Every structure is written in C-alpha cells, then in structure tokens.
C-alpha cells in the first residue's frame, strides 16, 4: 500500500512518518523537544548523585571518564540500594 500522506511509504508501517499540511499553522499540535535539548546527559546524572548520593559522587564521576559510562551508571550498586522499593 502506498500513501501520499507518508510520501509514498506504507502508512501502516510502525516507522512511517506522517506529514500534515497544517503542522506549522495549526494549534492542534505541540512541539516535543529532542532528547539532546533536554540536558539529560552527564551533568544531570552528576547533579542527581551530588544531591541524592553525595558519598558516591567520586565513584560516579569515575564512570564518566571512560566509554560505557551510562551502562556503569545505570548498574551502579549505589542506586540499587538507594532507590529500590
């Protein structure tokens, strides 16, 4: 199936991008910021640790000095102890 709404792509495909003619002029839509615009990176992680787990701050800073920081950060034992419910 081909669709003009998606530029010829299958409109039923989960990754289909639907183009709306009134996207820029209508008030029916809201803009969702890109994840990079939300400052969700290293600085946010370090602020969280500094505020909630200050004793682990040095350890977490060490995680961010090498590749794979977010994996180590997510699996840090300090979080499983503090935030487990």
Description:
Helices cover 36% and strands 0% of the residues. With 85 residues, it is mainly α. The protein folds into 2 domains: 1-31, no CATH class; 35-85, no CATH class. The model is unreliable at 1-7 (pLDDT under 50).
How would you briefly describe this protein structure?
The chain has 85 residues and is mainly alpha-helical.
Over all CA atoms, what is the radius of gyration? 21 Å
Report the major sheet.
none
Q: Average pLDDT value? A: 76
Quickly give the structural class.
Answer: mainly alpha
How many DSSP H or I helices? Answer: 4
Name the overall outline: elongated
Provide the succession of SSEs: HHHH
Uncertain segments of ≥5 residues (pLDDT<50)?
Answer: 1-7
Strands, count? 0
Helix content: 25-40%
Integer tally of domains: 2
The percentage of residues in β strands lies in under 5%
Distance between the termini: 48 Å
Core attributes:
85 residues, mainly alpha, 2 domains, disordered N terminus
Helix-strand layout with pairing:
Blueprint: H1 42-52, H2 57-63, H3 69-74, H4 77-83
């Amino acid at each position: 199936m081909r669709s003009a709404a998606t530029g010829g792509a299958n409109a039923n495909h989960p990754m289909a991008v639907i183009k709306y003619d009134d996207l820029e002029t209508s008030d029916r839509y809201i803009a969702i910021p890109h994840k990079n615009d939300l400052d969700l990176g290293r600085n946010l992680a370090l602020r969280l640790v500094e505020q909630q787990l200050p004793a682990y701050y040095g350890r977490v800073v060490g995680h961010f000095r090498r590749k794979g920081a977010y994996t180590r950060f997510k699996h840090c034992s300090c979080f499983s102890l503090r935030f487990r419910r």
